[in-house]
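forwarding from the other thread:

> can someone predict this with FE2/S2 (inorganic) cluster?

sure thing
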Amino acid sequence: MKRIRRIQVNGRWREDAVADNTLLIDYLRGPLQLTGTKQGCDGGECGACTVLVDGKPRLACCTFAASVEGCHVETIESQSQNGRLSPLQQAFHERLGAQCGFCTPGMIMAAEGLLRRNPQPDEAAIREALGGNLCRCTGYVKIVESVQAACGAEEAA
Ligand code: FES
Ligand code: FES
């Protein structure tokens, strides 16, 4: 059944008619046109669809939009401000954490969730936080280095 639901997305409250069975990824990429959130496996395996729900990483392909009514959803589009890349985005760019880039939005949102609860994670914590995010392009070294660099950037900011 479709109902008007109030969901905060990237800091703005929205009211949209959303069916009970609409997945969060389809709500974000469809009516909201927030296509930065990527659809990889569509089955909870790859992490490409990771967004933050009330500050915590969540797989948008395994979450009903109805279940986040009243919550704050943050997508990769919330990272840059006034055309400026976030420290994580900048670090992924500079440290070659993004190769084909398909996994990058999910990686960055998972890393963002980590840095909010642990601003200075060690390598093991970074690898654990990104453990559910698969990248087909790399051995993850550049990705981990990117997150480490972003910690330094955030510290210096
Ligand atoms: S698309 Fe959601 S985990 Fe792969
Ligand atoms: S950069 Fe290509 S899948 Fe990760």
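Helices lie at 24-29, 87-94, 104-117, 123-129, 141-156. thats all i got for now
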